[in-house]
Amino acid sequence: MNDWFPEILSWPFLAAGSFFYLVGSIGLMRMPDVYTRMHATSVSDTFGAALLLIGMMITAGFSLVTAKLLIILLILLYTGPVATHALARAARYAKVEPVLHKGEEGSSSKL
Amino acid sequence: MFTAAAIAVALAHVFAVYRALKGPTVFDRVLAANTIGTAAILLLAVLGFLTERPEFLDIGITYGLLNLIGTLAVLKFFRYGDLARSAEEEPADT
Q1: What is the pLDDT of residues B26-68, one digit of tens each?
Q2: What sign does the CA torsion over B52, A53, B56, A71 have?
Q3: Which residues of chain A make contact with B19, given a CB cutoff of 8 A?
Q4: Does ipTM top 0.85?
């Protein structure tokens, strides 16, 4: 494989990863309440980040850099859901109400 | 293509800071902080590739671990009011 092939192969992964990352963060901005925002960011944290990291792994080929990228991927895929779960439980204990129908105020908690 | 990824992740930072400033509840802010942490790791990795410096990835790994611990500590604080209590006795109003 001459040198330009990994470069070209990684482009779709990086492009898709950036796209999904932006989609997740736009969702973080526009969603009505905490729970739907969590849903939006988990899209970008897991899928967008995984695509970006895979794109970089392809560029890096078989080397120590790919091993480090793999470790980062595993860390992200492990800590994302843990943090989101803890956040959802804490929000639920603090009685943050989800927005169930249109036009309701963002969230009625007193925090 | 790496510059496009760097721009996308930088934009994610801007949106997360916007949510952190605006978020009505404190949990929006914790969520924004968590997102900023993840975006920082990815920005580190992308910049490491742009500037041909593989050391950035080590920083990204340590920051990934720190980010989880930070988020869990803040959440425990907001759930129990202080960090001292252990998690056995659940609050009565579950």
Answers
A1: 888 888 988 999 999 999 999 988 888 888 889 989 998 898 8
A2: negative
A3: 28-29, 37
A4: no
User: Taking the complete model, does pTM exceed 0.95, yes or no?
Assistant: no
Alpha-carbon distance A57 to nearest alpha carbon in chain B (angstroms) = 10
| Residue listed under structure tokens 């990352």 | A21
What pLDDT was estimated at residue A54?
92
* Of residues B58, B3, B74, B12, the one with CA closest to residue A86: B74
Beta carbons of A37 and B60 less than 8 Å apart? no
Closest CA to B43 of B7, B18, B19: B7
State the Cα–Cα distance between residues A34 and A94, nearest whole angstrom.
Answer: 12
Residues 6+ apart with CB under 8 A from B49: A56, A59, A60, B2
Domain hosting A84: range is 4-93
Buried b (16+ CB within 10 A) or exposed e, A17-45: bbebbbbbbebbeebbbbbebbebbbbbb
Label residue A61 exposed, middle or buried (CB < 10 Å: 0-12, 13-18, 19+). Answer: exposed
Q: What percent of chain B has pLDDT over 70?
A: 87
- Number of independent structural domains in chain A: 1
Residue A29: pLDDT above 70?
yes
What type of residue sits at position A106?
G
Q: Is residue A61 part of a domain?
A: yes
Specify the pLDDT at position A105. Answer: 56
Contact of B8 with chain A, judged by CB distance below 8 Å, is answered with: yes
